[in-house]
């Protein structure tokens, strides 16, 4: 007993220190974290089955096969670094998904300089239970340190590959001959090659098979990263994302498929023909020469318009303004990962945001037919107002390309009423209107972006004027408070415009940029006092209000036909009598009278009759088609034609933006 116990202990230590055992432990721990991530996604119709786990292991092998070719301490250090890196990446994805319902991409990471500004928003997405995600590091880090720096383990090897072998009979390491060192080197090389080949077989193989069968076309036309994740798993998704970014941005840049270029040309030729018939309509050019003011409201959703709580209207000033304005009750935000910048891009450029990252950041130097550039050519002074850092979302560069005369950013405002990220919306509106009145030459176009209702909606007590009752102390209650505050600020802005004599000669628009990221269905059911289905939730999370006030208050009323952020630029041009025929826009003119479809970035669409909600697994047949007249599910093929049209539009927009085709088309003329 006295002799054999140390021998068993030594054998155990030797087994734990064996390269294969360390590699297996690394693989198991990362796989468990990938499984924990998936469990926290709660993604509809996406499971992490056995084959998905096999793909994850294959991806890990492809990511780490090279560690076998390092000396022992090098291998230990490499595995430890990989472990920390992947832990950070997977957890970052989990936190990012909680807010954006999407995964990190290279373009998003290039915007990481904005993370400091997100502050409280990020903190609110980190939960106490997340500790378990890092629990293994309490063992991994000390163990790796001992293996790397303990004299006992350092003395067990010389330079180069492993030069010692474990002698199980005596419980210690003994020297090996030069011949054995060469054999061990060959074994390590063979182990690395084996890991590489095995990774290709069980990781890349199934993904390739999927891409040729049920997920055919995914890598050619991916409009949502969650769909890609369903096929590839997280690690392969990031690998493909890096590959795509390098392909598109290194060297001579991407080259468009000639068939895709022809598809884009054909789409816009058809669109221009349909637009020509709209010039004879009554509102075309009726407000020629009017000022244009558009306000983009941060996280301003549609579900609370006209609602009250505790006997108070949540949006009393908006409600009052509706009486003399056009209110679009089914107006959709069409944003992607770029969120606020995507809303700006869609509204002012009338193209779909990208499936990954923000066009403001990725393609700020490309050619666009932006609303400010078009109006500038018509003699307008064009200005944009946002009381935050000018570099956020790469706005300073993008706004120069969009041909704004001046960008009034944080340094151009007096911070006399600090709130949240910067300046209160009340002060922001007051100072912006003052600048319009004193500095802008009429006719002018002014675009304003608010901030006070930004996540996590922490409004100071002295500005909380709404009794939210049972929602007090919750993020949902805080959100209602923030919206109520912004509504009051909006009312003050309208009064200021009237007092300065600007209101009667201005086309005024207000719309929400995106949802609040509060997705808890029970909260909305409690607030609205009724049960909700998936269609209700899809509309709640994607509808934002659009309010349009014309100079003479004409055409006031509620408009129920679907519309979206891409429709703003074509509609403004129509009112001003500026032909949209020669511009590369994808939105609808809401005054055109034609049937219109609104396509969301995730592949959802509505034409006013049907509403299609895609499945997270990217398969069309697994999505859901709703008949809006009955507000119930209908046969899936009822949405087939619309689905194909929506897919085409997203692909056309992505192709046009990615390959800078507007510039190419104009140069070819």
Automatic annotation (TrEMBL):
It is a multi-pass membrane protein. Substrate binds at residue 454. Keywords: Cell membrane, Manganese, Membrane, Metal-binding, Transferase, Transmembrane, Transmembrane helix. This is LTA synthase family protein. It is an enzyme of class 2 (transferase). The chain crosses the membrane at residues 20-38, 50-69, 76-97, 131-149, 189-210. The keyword Hydrolase does not apply. It is found in: Cell membrane. The keyword Cell membrane applies. Its EC number is 2.7.8.-. Belongs to the LTA synthase family. Residues 290-578 form the Sulfatase N-terminal domain. Pathway: Cell wall biogenesis; lipoteichoic acid biosynthesis. GO terms for molecular function: metal ion binding; transferase activity. The active site is at 340. InterPro entries: Alkaline_phosphatase_core_sf (IPR017850), LtaS-like (IPR012160), OpgB/LTA_synthase_biosynth (IPR050448), Sulfatase_N (IPR000917).
């Amino acid at each position: 007993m006295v002799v054999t116990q140390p021998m068993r202990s030594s054998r155990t230590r030797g087994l734990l220190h064996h390269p294969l055992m360390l590699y297996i432990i690394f693989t198991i721990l990362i796989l468990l974290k990938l499984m924990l991530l998936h469990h926290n996604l709660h993604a509809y119709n996406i499971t992490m089955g056995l084959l998905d786990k096999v793909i994850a292991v294959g991806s890990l092998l492809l990511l780490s096969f090279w560690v076998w070719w390092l000396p022992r301490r090098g291998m230990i250090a490499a595995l430890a670094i990989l472990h920390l890196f992947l832990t950070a990446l997977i957890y970052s994805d989990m936190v990012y998904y909680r807010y954006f319902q999407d995964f990190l991409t290279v373009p998003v990471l290039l915007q990481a300089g904005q993370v400091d500004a997100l502050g409280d928003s990020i903190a609110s997405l980190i939960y106490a239970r997340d500790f378990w995600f890092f629990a293994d590091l309490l063992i991994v880090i000390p163990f790796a340190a001992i293996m790397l720096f303990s004299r006992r383990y350092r003395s067990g090897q010389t330079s180069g590959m492993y030069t010692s072998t474990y002698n199980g009979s005596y419980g210690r390491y003994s020297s090996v001959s030069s011949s054995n060192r060469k054999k061990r080197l060959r074994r390590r090389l063979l182990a690395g090659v084996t890991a590489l080949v095995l990774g290709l077989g069980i990781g890349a193989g199934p993904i390739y098979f999927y891409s040729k069968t049920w997920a055919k076309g995914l890598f050619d036309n991916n409009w949502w990263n969650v769909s890609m994740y369903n096929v590839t798993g997280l690690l392969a998704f990031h690998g493909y994302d890096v590959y795509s970014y390098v392909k598109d941005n290194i060297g001579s840049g991407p080259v468009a498929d000639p068939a895709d270029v022809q598809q884009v040309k054909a789409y816009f030729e058809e669109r221009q023909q349909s637009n020509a018939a709209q010039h004879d309509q009554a509102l075309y050019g009726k407000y020629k020469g009017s000022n244009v003011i558009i306000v983009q409201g941060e996280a301003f959703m549609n579900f609370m318009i006209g609602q009250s709580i505790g006997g108070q209207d949540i949006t009393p000033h908006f409600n009052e303004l509706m009486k003399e304005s056009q209110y679009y009750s089914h107006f959709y935000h069409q944003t992607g990962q770029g969120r606020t910048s995507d809303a700006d891009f869609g509204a002012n450029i009338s193209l779909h945001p990208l499936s990954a990252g923000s066009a403001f950041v990725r393609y700020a130097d490309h050619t666009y037919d932006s609303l400010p550039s078009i109006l500038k050519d018509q003699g307008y002074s064009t200005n944009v107002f946002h009381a935050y850092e000018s570099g956020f979302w790469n706005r300073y560069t993008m706004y120069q390309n969009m041909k704004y005369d001046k960008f009034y950013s944080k340094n151009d405002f007096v911070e006399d009423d600090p709130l949240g990220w910067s300046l209160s919306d009340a002060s922001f509106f007051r100072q912006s209107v003052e600048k319009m009145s004193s500095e802008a030459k009429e006719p002018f176009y002014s675009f304003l972006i608010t901030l006070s209702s930004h996540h996590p909606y922490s409004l100071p007590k002295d500005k909380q004027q709404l009794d939210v009752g049972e929602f007090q102390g919750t993020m949902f209650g805080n959100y209602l408070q923030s919206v109520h505050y912004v509504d009051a600020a909006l009312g003050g802005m309208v009064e200021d415009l009237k007092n300065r004599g600007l209101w009667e000669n201005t086309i005024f628009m207000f719309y929400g940029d995106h949802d609040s990221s509060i997705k808890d269905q029970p909260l909305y059911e409690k607030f609205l006092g009724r049960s909700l289905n998936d269609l209700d939730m899809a509309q709640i999370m994607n509808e934002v209000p659009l309010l349009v006030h014309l100079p003479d208050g004409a055409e006031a009323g509620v408009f129920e036909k679907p519309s979206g952020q891409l429709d703003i630029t074509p509609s403004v041009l129509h009112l001003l009598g500026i032909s949209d025929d020669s511009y590369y826009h994808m939105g609808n003119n809401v005054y055109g009278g034609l049937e219109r479809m609104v396509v969301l970035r995730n592949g959802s669409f509505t034409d006013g009759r049907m509403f299609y909600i895609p499945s997270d697994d990217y398969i069309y047949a697994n999505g859901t088609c709703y008949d809006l007249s009955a507000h119930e599910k209908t046969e899936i093929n009822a949405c087939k034609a619309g689905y194909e049209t929506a897919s085409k539009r997203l692909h056309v927009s992505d192709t046009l933006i990615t390959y800078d085709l507007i510039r190419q088309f104009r140069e070819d003329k």
